[in-house]
Amino acid sequence: MKERAETVVIGAGICGASIAMHLAKLGRTDVVVLEQGELVSGTTSHAPGLVGQLRSSAALTRILKDSVALYRTLELDGVRGFEEVGSLRLASSAARLDELRRQKHWAEQCGLEAHLVSSDEALAMFPAMSSEAITGALYIPSDGSATAPVLAGAMIREAKRLGVEFRPRARVTAIERKADRVSAVETTAGRIETASLIVACGIWSPVVAGLAGVGVPLVPMQHQYHETEPLEEIADAAAKLGKPLPNVRDPDNLVYARVKNGGLSVGGYERNPRAWTAAIPGGENPTVLTYDAAHFEPLWQAAVRRFPMLAASKPTKQVNGLESFTPDGAFLLGPIAAVGGMWIACGFCAHGVSAGGGVGKALAEWIVEGKPQQDLAGMEIGRFGTRPPAGEALVARVSQVYGTYYDIAPAG
Fold it and tell me: Do 372 and 366 touch, CB atoms closer than 8 A?
């Protein structure tokens, strides 16, 4: 590893890889990316991979649109990392249908194609689901499914081609400061001097930023999902339509689903979420915990109601992964006011894959050009001031954000 670099990025997941690649594309190629384990590990390695673009702010929607525009172009060893299958967001109540109408209007304002469809039209798009209580749906044709390790790997390959150095198995142990500015980073693989440091290491970001005395209001939340064997009903529906089935979000039942390897991958956001408040565990992939079938059972039963074929299916994979959540449900981006040259990019609240490409572009522009090309109001870490929430109060606020993830947003 070199002894100095213009910029050091901590974290080689999808966000860190995107930041490094976009920095290099803007001409800043003297970049070293540090990863404590293997490249493309952590949350990126087990992300469910549903890529949606419509969110509550125009700036965030544009970031996600930038991600999709990038992901369409990426492949690794002949394997594409993004499949544009579209998405259906179901309504099972009059109030949810009203929300979908507002979301369609918002999508149009953001330049995102979206269609409000009837229950019959939704069932025609995904014939393998139950029609129970569906009153309509919002269809976004450019949403899709991602294989996050492929996307991250493709960006790492491009960044390396442009001159970026990636250093796996280099855990950061100290951040040095001089006159309230970053000056160097100590790692298990050696010391590297730098005047520009980007912390983009997911659930480890509070730990790493804490080495410089910086508080990061982020809590790892346990997020579970279940993958099944190939299902005949899915194969028949896809064959009938002559194309892949769209992703489905069923917020009134708190669950989502995507087709994966011929089966279904289903997950959701329970009302009684579990934060991880202990030290991050060790092991080959510390972001994966023991799957808790009993805790997932209510979501599984909700998924079975919407997709009855699941009842007789066999699991192929069950994941309990740690995801970064913030106390207001918004990202943590931008410069750290108290430490010159230090930047943050984390707290993606289950949107890490959806946002990775666009966040990398925006942050690289901000660093190199002095400002991002789009307004990131509401996402800057500076919104929390010099004393961000911490301790039990932080855990309580983050747990509320997670537990109300699929609640209907207020009108207006």
Answer: yes
| Lowest mean per-residue pLDDT among 60-64, 119-123, 142-146, 226-230 | 60-64
Flag whether pLDDT at 152 surpasses 90: yes
Average pLDDT over residues 35-52: 92
Q: Are 23 and 213 in contact (CB under 8 A)?
A: no
| Distance (Å, whole) CA 398 – CA 326 | 6
Complete domains list, the chain, with CATH: 7-47+149-218+328-391 (3.50.50.60)
**Any residues with CB less than 8 A from the CB of 89 and at least 6 apart, and which?**
100, 103, 137, 138, 140, 249, 251
Range of lowest pLDDT (4-18, 33-47, 78-92)? 33-47
Tokens of 281: 């565990």
Q: At residue 411, does pLDDT exceed 80?
A: no
pTM, two decimal places: 0.96
**Residue with the larger pLDDT of the pair 183 and 106:** 183
Q: At residue 116, what are phi and psi to the nearest 5 degrees?
A: -85, 120
Q: Are 1 and 33 in contact (CB under 8 A)?
A: no
Q: Among 218, 214, 215, 212, which residue's Cα sits nearest to residue 194?
A: 212
- Alpha-carbon gap, residue 248 to 113, rounded angstroms: 17
Say if residue 386's pLDDT is above 90: no
